[in-house]
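anyone seen this seq b4? input:
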Amino acid sequence: MHIFIDADACPVKEEALKVAERHGIAITFVSNAWMRLPQSPLVQRMIVQEGPDAADNWIAERIGPGDICVTQDIPLAGRCLKAGARAIGNTGKPFTDASIGMALAMRELSQHLRETGESRGFNAAFTRQDRSRFLEAMEHAVQAIKRGQ
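predicted toks r here
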């Protein structure tokens, strides 16, 4: 089991590490540039070349069954699910085979509305409840993998 974090703009780095440390799971933070990360012997840092989807591609090429990816990038979440891994959004919403199709469709609709000027694309503020839901979702995912589900 390994945890991969799509680290650029990820607001739950500390929370992910808290779960990783509780279970002794290695965690890799993947980003396009150096950033300050939590200190732990379990933490690995991977800085990929700049460019569209470089971090996503690095994660998707290495993730597999029994692994977890933390990302808000819906296409990356889909790629992780196809590889047999679990994917969890920053707000604690797990991506599943049943939900990924709708998430991709909503992403495309939102992009279309922004491009046509129908929407300005504001995102909701990240809250304490989001952090709490994320911690719960991470713990649930780790426990389910350990049980072989």
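The first helix runs from residue 13 to 23. The beta strands are 2-6, 26-31, 43-47, 68-70, 86-88, 94-95. kinda curious what u guys think
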